[in-house]
Amino acid sequence: MTDTHTPGQKFEGATALASERSGTLHGEALAALGRDVREGLGSGPKSLSSRWLYEGVGSDLFELITELVEYYPTRAERAILDEHAKEIVLISGATSVIELGSGTSAKTRVLLDAFYDVEQLEAFVALDATEQALLDSIDALVERYPRTAVSGVMADFNEDLSCVPEGSGRLLAFLGGTIGNFGPAARAGSLSRFADLLGEGEHLLLGTDLVKHPRRLVAAYDDSQGVTAAFEKNVLHVINANLGSDFDPDRFEYVVRWNTQTEIIEMGLRSLGAQDVMIPDLGLSVHFDDGEEVRTEISAKFRLDGVARELASAGFAVLRQFQDAAGDFALTLARRESSRARVVGEPLVEKSNGPSSASPSASVEGYREVRAATEALAECLSAEDQTVQSMPDVSPTKWHLGHVTWFFEQFALMSHGSGYRPIDDGYLYLFNSYYESAGRRHARAERGLLSRPGVVEIKTYRHSVDESMERLLVAGSSAEVSALVELGLHHEQQHQELILMDIKHVLGISPLAPSYSPDSTGKIFTDATQTIGWVAHDGGPVEVGVDSPSNAAGGMDFTSGFVFDNESPGHTVWLDPFAIADRLVTAGDWLEFMQDGGYDHANLWLADGWAVNQAERREAPLYWSKGRNGWEVFTLHGRQPLGLNEPVVHVSYYEADAFARWAGLRLPTEAEWEAVATVSSPPEVKAVALHPRPAKPVTFKNELRQLFGEVWQWTSSAYLPYPRFKPLKGMVGEYNGKFMVGQHVLRGSSSITSPGHARATYRNFFPPGARWPFTGVRLAKDI
Ligand code: SAH
Ligand code: AVI
Fold first, then answer.
1. What pTM does this model have?
2. Pocket, ligand 2, Cβ cutoff 6 A
3. What is the dihedral angle through the alpha carbons of 736, 738, 741, 743, rounded to the nearest 10 degrees?
4. Distance between CA atoms of 249 and 242, rounded to whole angstroms?
5. Phi/psi at 365 (nearest 5 deg)?
6. Which of 509, 583, 627, 717 is found 20 to 30 A from 544 (Cα to Cα)?
7. Are 360 and 756 within 8 A, CB to CB?
8. Residue minimizing CA distance to atom 13 of ligand 1
């Protein structure tokens, strides 16, 4: 080392940076390493700051990572810069660029070239904590941009940023997805500090890696050549070189995990055997249990709307969000707002973890929560209400209550509860829905002819099964039982929705139009029409579906979250460029279709749809009727005037298809829907709403509203097995697979879907004529 640099030290050109690649730290950096190691390894769970990964050979290893076939982020961000750098120059009007965590600034050159070419690059400042990274970049940049003041600042971007030169017309670039190496709270803090650093009207350019198929995400951080493993292990060499310790990197193995809940890649080192390591310079001895892990890094993955929300919370207005063709990565250009305009109602840190919005789990608490939610739905219904079957597709409420209980009795207790005896053999017959392997059953269309068992006996049946189930769960169940219970809970959530849509039909055929719930606060009337905006997708190969844990390759647990077998396996689909509507079709849109003779022109309709219309005299969506003052709609709150801005609901596939044809547009395929939904935030529905609600105004560009929680959206895709689909093993194999003919896929979720039940890969399905579910329309078009 010829020179010792203090943090925040500024280098003009490269002259001061001539030092060797020793990885030896000094001064404040060394003290900071000591503090981090003491804090991170001193008490469990153990972790180390990712800052130190880049010391020594770390920055070279990172460069190798950026060239790996599996590691797409660098290439994807470069492609975005190639395409949009000029736009960024134009829109920002910036005259200097400051890059945080600049590394070698290799792909930043694409951006800098665009500024330089139009004589708009007065200054470029590269800020990085690693001296080596600065060394590797500054020389070349000085040469490349002779008319620009190029400088390097060695500093920790988590600390005071006062070393960043003041000025105006600055663009702060934070590229590569490095913001994902912070946890949510640290991220909120950093974005706020970036906002503080900038003046009103200055800009931030933020690179974020997007959520995608877990297989690709895990591969990007678990490359076949082991470069990432060496990079993460390098931190042990750095500690040895600087704090005199004797870590043996061979006694640790690299581990990587995709956390579906937090949407974070977690990386760490696992101790191979119990061991004690001395760190003399800290006077510390660290004990590792066999298998104990040290977190070395996290890499959060984002969704476009999440990025926009976090930026808005920090005081930025999003101007543009660019993506690469495959939708793998996003670059967001944002402008510093005058005042910290936090989005009303949005918490600074995303995702509150209220229990009711989480996917159900196979624990006693998880079981109780779902079972209680089902019973709550029946509380406001009389025994008579619960007995009626208004058409063969509808089941009486009390039958649903019995059937979901039978599911646990038949599949969990009878197969896995030692010595379990069924409560009543008659119930096994009555409450079997369609499982041939479970024996004979009562005819579906005759479920409403049974006065017995009554609601009280069915309640007793439920509680007896609950007691046995809780005993089974407390005894500690096998993985097989846990999987069956989890399936049973998701199955019960599906019936929660069925209970509501079925009772709506039961009440809806009554001339009295009774209300399921007299409280009509769910109803929102707005008549301001909102034009449809279009969100474009470049097409190309997209990953759809997801590997269920049972068929994930190599036993790696890619998805700890529950999925139905029909969402699996994950696979690649080719899409042509398309655009999708940013809101649902409204009742007002539908009235226009009707007023234009939509139901009268056979040429708009598929032959089967036209025949159903004639046979059943379908001339409007189900539950619409002409009242004295115009159109009315029957809802679970009773009959109400039709709100023009509410989404149209209770239309068949045939109607959806005819409407799209009338509009000169089309329905999306299920892969198109999924491709755009996976980059939006997952549904965070906390409670059901008895009637779908109008779209909220757009808050950021390309916002896709109403993806979840209003109406299921018909897709043009037939409900078919995914390539290499395998039904679940055993009796529950009949759950989905045998229905894969003659139906259409619906995506999203509805306002009566249970909280925690929906996800982007979810495949709902109904026959094309069905319209008693909460079914609606989102349009698409070719571009
Ligand atoms: N922006 C580049 C490099 C990303 S690698 C790209 O997109 O490819 C992350 C960079 O951040 C490394 O150069 C590393 O040295 C730097 N870095 C990591 N932690 C840091 C910290 N706390 N302060 C400043 N720089 C840091
Ligand atoms: C710098 N950062 C964005 C990289 C990432 O993808 O999170 C660091 C990395 N770690 C392992 N591979 C890449």
1. 0.72
2. 65, 73, 176-178, 180-181, 221, 228, 231, 297, 299
3. -30
4. 15
5. -65, -45
6. 583
7. yes
8. 103
